[in-house]
Design goal:
Layout lengths: L1 H6 L11 E2 L1 H11 L9 H4 L3 E7 L12 H10 L21 H7 L5 E9 L3 E9 L8 H8 L4 H6 L11 E5 L4 H13 L2 E8 L5 H12 L3 E6 L2 H15 L4 H19 L2 E4 L1
Parallel strand pairs: 1-3, 5-6, 5-8, 6-7
Antiparallel strand pairs: 2-4, 3-4
Helix pairs in contact: 10-11
């Protein structure tokens, strides 16, 4: 999975393929076995990079066909939405994480080793070490834009994490409330919407009934996504990490948006508006 993601950002041919390193894997495994959330100290890394990810104990693998380590790589790659390709070494918004993404895509990194432990509290705990670490390069912030290059599609469109690169059809996340209903009603003519997605976590929710009526009235293809508590818990750690908040409303909206966006992408959707 690491090399597949790196290949997507190798339009210039600068990004090297990673090879497995048993010594890095042993160090990563030793850290994972501690079952303590947090990074190894800078001195302890000995010039290497480190990424960590965990999922609650209730989560079962594979997820979408991905084993635990492949899923970890995919999840860490989602920081690509935060990275500012035009201002190397920064995120699009202050304090949004991009370090795991840079570990994964850094062009000069050549070696990889990962460890995995199922911890009582943290759940599935994955630690990956990368050699050499990106911060060991002199003036790394000034060359980060070159070493985390745009994908071929991003280069062609001039867009960082671009709607043009992920599909063909535009869609709306439809809750059945006022804002999304207005967007849906106007969307077919104004926004070019073709489909609506509604995430429902309860049989007694009024969202389902209202969203069905709005989608039918707006002549949009409607996708109802029923989710369980287990699915919510599965998405929660990544949403907390990305948003860096424990605000219940923000996390609820983010989880619904992420699940809807994933389903939209599966059916060829371009953007959730």
């Amino acid at each position: 999975m690491h090399n597949a993601l790196r290949a997507d950002h190798n339009a210039t041919g600068r990004v090297k393929l990673l090879v497995w390193d048993d010594q890095l894997a042993a160090k990563a495994q030793a850290h994972a076995d501690l079952c303590t959330w947090g990074h190894t100290s800078g001195v302890g890394l000995q010039g290497n990079g480190e990424s960590i990810m965990s999922q609650p104990p209730v989560v079962q693998y594979p997820i979408n066909g991905l084993d635990v380590c492949s899923y970890a790589a995919w999840a860490l790659y989602q920081e690509v939405t935060n990275y500012n390709f035009d201002v190397p070494g920064t995120s699009k918004e202050a304090d949004m994480p991009v370090g795991h993404l840079i570990n994964l895509l850094w062009a000069e990194t050549t070696r990889l080793g990962c460890g995995y432990t199922k911890c009582p509290v943290l759940g599935s705990y994955v630690v990956c070490w990368y050699g050499p670490g990106f911060y060991m390069t002199p003036n790394y912030k000034r060359v980060m834009g070159k070493n985390v290059p745009r994908s071929r599609c991003q280069r062609a469109t001039g867009d960082d994490w671009c709607e043009a690169c992920v599909g063909k059809k535009a869609c709306v996340l439809l809750s059945g409330g006022l804002d999304s209903s207005i967007a849906a009603c106007l969307g077919k003519d104004v926004l070019g919407l073709t489909a609506a997605f509604t995430v429902v976590a309860s049989d007694v929710s009024t969202d389902r009934e209202h969203a069905v009526v709005v989608a039918r009235t707006s002549a949009l293809q409607h996708h109802l996504i029923d989710i369980s508590l287990e699915e919510v818990l599965q998405e929660l750690p990544n949403c907390v990490r990305v948003l860096q908040t424990f605000d219940g409303m923000a996390l609820r909206n983010e989880i619904a948006g992420k699940l809807a966006a994933s389903r939209a992408q599966q059916v060829g959707g371009k953007a959730a508006r």
